[in-house]
Amino acid sequence: MRHRGAFLISAAVLLVVTLFLNLSLGAIVIPTSTILSAFLSFDRQDYAQNVVLYQRLPRALIALYVGALFASSGSVLQGLTRNPLASPATLGISAGAAAFVVGGVMLFDFGLEAQGFAALAGAILGFLASLTMARFAGLSRDPRGLSLILSGALVSMLLIGLANALLLSDPSRRADLLSWISGNINHVYADRLFSVWWLGAVSLGLLFALARPLTLMSLGREQAASAGVNVDLVTRLSLAAVMVGSGSAVAICGPIGFVGLVVPHLVRPFVGQDQRLGLPACALTGAIACLLADMVAREAFQPFVLNTGVLLDLLGGLAFLLIVKRFYLAGGEAAR
Amino acid sequence: MIEARGLSAAYGDTPVLFDVSARFSAGRLTALVGPNGCGKSTFLKAIMNFVPVSGGAVTLDGEPILKIGRRKLARRLAYLPQESQCPDYMTLGELVELAGYSRYSLFGGPTEGDRELFQKALGVVGLEGLAHRQVNRLSGGQRQRAFIAMILAQDAGIVLMDEPVNHLDMTYQYATMSLVKDLTRDHGKTVITVLHDLNLTLAFADDVVMMREGRIVAAGPVRETVTPETVGAVFDLDADIFERDGRLVCLPRMDARCRTLAA
Question: Which class would CATH give A57-327?
Fold first, then answer.
């Protein structure tokens, strides 16, 4: 228990360090003293301080927000479905949110708040579509849950295809969302963050409150019910929190896949299965992962700037293969 | 005391339990026995309301079980599924602590009394000192005892177990059943368990409910209920039941019907 607490403290310290690096490194390197000045005694005439407050800080806050939300959501989904491949990206949630935001903007000219609610509706619809398709495909006779993941992949492809078709249908208006649809952490989306951040706060608060019953549900629905968990209520509330949290993250910067899938696997060997530690650990590690990925995407390929979502998708594809090998293929360490 | 009256259940359009009634006395170990698919596990799940119940009712000390909230019910009734699974990295200590969930407040945790109970539960199953070990790294027998410790830590008076000795070798089967027997004898629990092995039933159970095709064929104290006639009626098997050193033994006869099935 002690070393698990130490992991949380280390992750918190690392998050602060990564945040400072994120604010400091870039086309111009900004010293710590200037960063502190930007916060404590902002000088409007100082170019570096303007870069910190109006470019790098919003971008870092977006990375922090989406990293924490996607990673926590992935951890909850993996526990609820008892499926190591479950995440907002693999269960149609991110794609549903993205398709509805694109649809809302292209067809109905939605403003920022309306986009947040469209993302929420899309997240719910994407997940329900994946679940329904998996049930048709025989989910109840598939204890390893592959039908759910395959259905999620299919629904995601369909929804992202639909979103892309809508984007291509109107060249004059697609510029705003063309980069967003592939997951783009960018300071220009700061308004989106400020309009939906409270949804993420509510989502995380609810998930933390449900941490203990969620841990029990990783033992199975019957075992959890036997111990006194109202399984249906906890499932509905936590799924609602996941939809709200991941939907709002997608509404800000588009679908980002790697974090929700992989961070829970990275964190578990250090903090175990207890979601009271696992959820904060996932939130911190997810935030660190997104801040680091954002720095790499921004700086590693200069003069080009890569979309963070594209970089994370590349890493996520590799991680997906490793998880499949570990949990599903014969000879894998945890294959049963 | 727990009582089922006229309980019926179905999986979709397939009925599996027909008008089953049974009364389980406090402080006794009752075995549910019968051939595969006869509805033993469904009976336990119907008591827990884990399967859609199409008729009948279950009462706990006269109170309808459906009117008791999940948390209150967990303090009185515990259930151990057939294939208890534990996720990777969960330790024995965490597993046992989770069992006390029904007693914790929303953000609270175990009290000193709870912690003493957890230690005692681990001691009873012989796993004291292993609280920090991952459950999935324990041996099969230790794992089963870990889940029995969880049941003890839940501290419910009535315990339902679905084949607690499944997949265990003979030594662990007898060790586990001795432990289950101790729950009734030393801890005053009422245990209702599904068992496949009639000899384990004869060795450890006080009462037996014999089922076939979703119905109860015979029920009562083991010595009076398990007879060659009831075994034949439930399992379609000719068997000798005899006493040796004060213990009943059931020995099936290898007649032509057995050989045909074996082939």
Answer: mainly alpha
Q: Is the ipTM of this complex over 0.85?
A: yes
Instruction: Residue B75: list chain A partners with CB under 8 A.
Output: 228
User: What's at B185, amino acid-wise?
Assistant: R
Residues B149 and B33 in one domain: no
Provide the Cα torsion A132, A138, A143, A147; round to 10°.
-60
Q: What is residue A54's DSSP assignment? A: I
Q: Which domain holds residue B106?
A: 87-155
Q: Report the chain A residue with the minimal C-alpha distance to residue B159.
A: A226
Q: A211 touching B, CB under 8 A?
A: no
Number of structural domains (chain B) is 2
Instruction: State which residue of chain A sits closest to B80, comparing Cα positions.
Output: A223
Are A228 and B88 in contact (CB < 8 Å)? no
The answer to the question of residue B117 being in a domain is yes
Q: Is residue B250 part of a domain?
A: no
Measured distance between the N- and C-terminal CA atoms of chain B, rounded to whole angstroms: 44
End position of a domain, from candidates B120, B155, B190 = B155
What is the rounded CA–CA span in Å between residue A16 and residue A34?
16
| B65 and B2 within one domain | yes
CA A188, distance to chain mean position in Å, is 19
Distances (CA, A) of B263 to B35, B251, B256: 18, 20, 11
Over the stretch A246-288, which tens digit does the pLDDT of each residue have? 999 999 988 887 899 999 999 998 998 899 999 999 999 999 9
* Per-residue pLDDT tens over the stretch A100-121: 999 998 899 888 888 888 999 9
